[in-house]
Design goal:
The chain has about 425 residues and is an alpha/beta fold. It has 16 helices and eleven strands. The protein folds into two domains: about 210 residues, Response regulator (Rossmann fold, 3-Layer(aba) Sandwich); about 150 residues, Response regulator (Rossmann fold), CATH 3.40.50. Helix 11 links the parallel strand 6 and strand 7. The longest helix has 18 residues. The protein starts with a helix and ends in a 5-residue tail after the last helix.
Length: about 425
């Protein structure tokens, strides 16, 4: 991880002693005392004061991926709930949401606005691989934290040249490994047809899947891609059906996920095991297709499904539902994307609490030093862990199958770090 000039200066013996004292202190006043004594001197405090923390998020509130826009409502509801409870370490969170329409140039424009005009402390969440890739060079040069991006591209955790950016959700290669493990056990001779988005998102998951099944009896026999500007994927689905594959791996964003599921349901002559990637597993994707038409579809997850009755009495789920009804009454508490936003915001709360210095550098270092941190909205057995060489907080997922009107978890959580080892850089 790169060090700033001021951090190198702080490595002097007297400053190091002060920093060590701050490391062992309690949050709150002890941090302020440490900062006053000079341990955090010279680090960036833009966007954070004793009373407020200014955060910005960039989401597709419009455009082809607008289904994801509601994630920002889950995030906002979490921060408003926390603010009503006294804030984070006594600081009120000011969360500003910008719309990029899932267009990378617009994402750059909005990132500049958040940093240069809004003066945010961090850009928490940029949604989508294309948008995140478009802005991370800019944020890195400005030394602005970009924690817990809403995309699972593997590059967010394997690129040493961008220490200010970290992922959050399981990376797409980890997710692909879970599906590969499942097929090796259940359909070891599977012939797989793949529909994927023609960008780093689609290629990352497909590449991870191919690598994970290499040397096994599982073969990818057909591939079709689409562009985010395409009106539909009907032609691609027709082509894939000709392969007569017995497994369909659906690597899509919500709009196209719904289309692929609907096309699969209509084609009664082709009945593959349908695996849909996590980002298109929300009920908002499945419901338009008709629940009766998506029975048996398989996916994987890592956070609690608000539509699953097994969490009805869960304390965090109750808090989430109450907060969403209070602060985002126009949103659906059963929508998984809202729960995703809540879980991601709760994770950032943990990282902010762990800062040794209330500075941008402090947050950058905190998100890279998480040790089995529990977040109440994540599934049991799923925690946040990072290190200097590992910026993937979550690499454990559990399979689920759609039955009746909801997803049913099955099997045990799969820790892909233990099953397959760390990703190569």
């Amino acid at each position: 991880m790169r060090k700033t000039t001021t951090l190198r200066a702080a490595a002097a013996a007297s400053a190091a002693l002060l920093l060590a004292t701050a490391c062992n202190s309690q949050r709150g006043q002890d941090d302020k005392d440490a900062a006053a004594d000079g341990a955090c001197q010279g680090q960036q405090t833009t966007g954070i004061t004793d009373r407020t923390i200014k955060l910005g998020g960039i989401y597709p509130l419009s455009g082809p991926a607008s289904a994801y826009g509601t994630i920002s409502k889950g995030v906002s509801a979490y921060f408003k709930h926390v603010n009503d409870k006294g804030g984070i370490d006594g600081r009120t969170v000011v969360f500003t949401v910008r719309d990029d329409g899932y267009q990378p140039p617009k994402a750059v424009e909005e990132a500049r606005r958040l940093v240069e005009q809004e003066k945010v402390f961090a850009v928490f969440q940029t949604l989508g691989t294309p948008s995140t890739a478009a802005v991370w060079d800019y944020l890195d040069k400005r030394k602005v934290p970009q924690p817990f991006v809403a995309t699972g591209a593997s590059v967010w955790g394997t690129d040493d040249n961008h220490p200010w950016t970290t992922g959050w959700q399981p990376n797409y290669i980890a997710e692909a490994r879970v599906y590969a493990k499942y097929l090796k056990e259940e359909k070891p001779k599977a012939k797989v047809a793949v529909l994927h988005q023609n960008d780093d998102f689609g290629k990352d998951l497909l590449g991870g899947f191919k690598a994970a099944v290499a040397g096994s009896g599982i073969k990818v026999v057909a591939e079709e891609s689409y562009e985010v500007t395409d009106p539909s994927v009907s032609a691609q689905m027709t082509s894939l059906a000709r392969s007569r594959a017995d497994v369909l791996l659906n690597i899509t964003t919500p709009k196209f996920g719904s289309q692929a599921l609907a096309a699969d349901a209509k084609n009664t002559r082709w009945n593959p095991l349908h695996i849909v990637n996590n980002v298109s597993s929300s009920a908002t994707v499945l419901k338009p297709v008709g629940f009766k038409n998506v029975q048996g579809v398989v996916s994987a997850t890592y956070f609690k499904d608000p539509a699953d009755p097994q969490w009805a009495d869960d304390a965090e789920m109750k808090t989430y539902r109450d907060a969403l009804r209070k602060y985002a009454p126009d949103s659906d508490p059963a929508n998984q994307f809202n729960a995703y936003g809540w879980a991601a915001a709760s994770s950032l709360h943990k990282a902010l609490d762990a800062m040794k210095c209330p500075t941008r550098e402090g947050l950058r270092d905190a998100v890279r030093n998480l040790k089995d941190v529990e977040v109440d909205m994540l599934l049991p057995g799923v925690t946040l862990s990072t290190g200097p060489a590992d910026a993937f907080p979550i690499e454990t997922m559990q399979l689920m199958r759609f039955e009746g009107e909801r997803w049913q978890l099955f099997g045990k959580p799969v820790d892909t770090r233990k099953e397959f080892g760390p990703l190569a850089k």
